Amino acid sequence: MSQTTKNALVPVKPNKPPARRSNGSRYDLVSDKVILTSREEVRKRLPDILGKALAMIWIDREFADVFARDPQGTLEAEGISLPENMAIEFQKPGTDRPRIVVYERRPNSNFKLRVLYLQLVMMAGR
Questions:
Q1: Are 10 and 19 in contact, with CB atoms under 8 Å apart?
Q2: How far is CA 84 from the centre of its chain?
């Protein structure tokens, strides 16, 4: 089903994949460097970035392997910096639906607080 937007009331930009690989080694999760300095910035900006990462995990086996081994290092290589007290875990608990969890570590404590998590869920409707 193809639609033309020539006569559309609201202009529609051409669809682009959520993230794409360029130059064979870099994944364009963000266009510029992103330095997150607070919990509020993490909650506001990181879900979009991690959503792109999850989409890439579903379609790109190489990216999935790299991200699973070192999610925080993968984001840092893409120019995405988190506050020092934040950590990212990649989880795939007994299901094919991977999940990314962001934790905040408390000073002088082994306790960590979940800030957010993302998981792709597909739903079919009729």
A1: no
A2: 18
Largest CA distance in the chain: 61
Q: In one letter, which amino acid is 107?
A: P
Reported as a pLDDT band with limits 50, 70 and 90, residue 42 is very high
Write b or e for each residue in 29-63: b if 16 or more Cβ atoms lie within 10 A of its Cβ, otherwise e.
bbeeebebeebeebeeebeebbbbbbbbbeebeeb
Between strands 112-119 and 99-105, the pairing is antiparallel
Residues 84 and 72: their CA atoms lie apart, in Å, by 11
Non-local (6+) Cβ contacts of 31 within 8 A are none
| Per-residue pLDDT, 25 | 47
Question: What CA–CA distance (Å, rounded) separates 69 from 97?
Answer: 17
